[in-house]
Amino acid sequence: MNAFKTYDESKAHEIVEGIYWVGFADRKAGFSNNPYILDDGEDVILFDPGSRAPEHFNIVKEKVCSVVEPERINYIVAHHQDPDICAAIPLFEEIVNPRVKIITPTRAAPFMRYYDSVSEVITVEDGEPFSLKSGRILTFVHTPYVHFAGSMVTYDEKTKTVFSSDIFGGFSIDWNLYANENYLEAFKAFTEPYLGSKLALDSALDKLETIAIERICPQHGSIIDKDIEIYMQAARELEVGTWV
Description:
Blueprint: E1 13-16, E2 19-21, E3 36-39, E4 44-47, H1 54-67, E5 73-77, H2 83-86, H3 89-93, E6 101-105, E7 120-124, E8 128-131, E9 137-142, E10 152-156, E11 161-165, H4 183-194, H5 198-208, E12 215-218, H6 228-236
């Protein structure tokens, strides 16, 4: 358990230099949401901004504004098209850089307009590197059918962080920001029913296993910053598609 890591969940939390958790713990639903900010100086990226429900959006907005001036946000990454990731995009468009660009997989791009988003959409291919102004490289890795045809994760080479979207997410009413001794079960409870294809999951894991990873930041559940190999192996052993 990461008992030595202290944080106040009512505030934004710096995970590693320049990367902040700006999410909220929804213990009643057991389904916490984890938007993230990456502040790289000239470039600021908001990952998976989340729900537009006021009780969710207002929390995320306050935390975002506590760590960066929102008008500095010039990229929004949407790892796939679901509303728990994308619904807040139009609300953030009102306060971020007016020339903000949305980065999303090619197969997810057509759905952005259904949220009434007005920003330019940049589509990225599997394994495509994206250079920030500082020279920092983000790599977008497609993970099709985990759990949508147009799904991806983002790898930050500088900090060896994977923003994993729904992969390694969890259901937990005793949520903790960092994965503890109970998180393997929370991970299993979320992943087995919500992923329908063992082939798709193994394909995503094959790609992730080629990357040097120090932490996994999922869009739901808890951050995994130790025992990465244990979680990779546990994912291999999951019986996905349990509602079929």
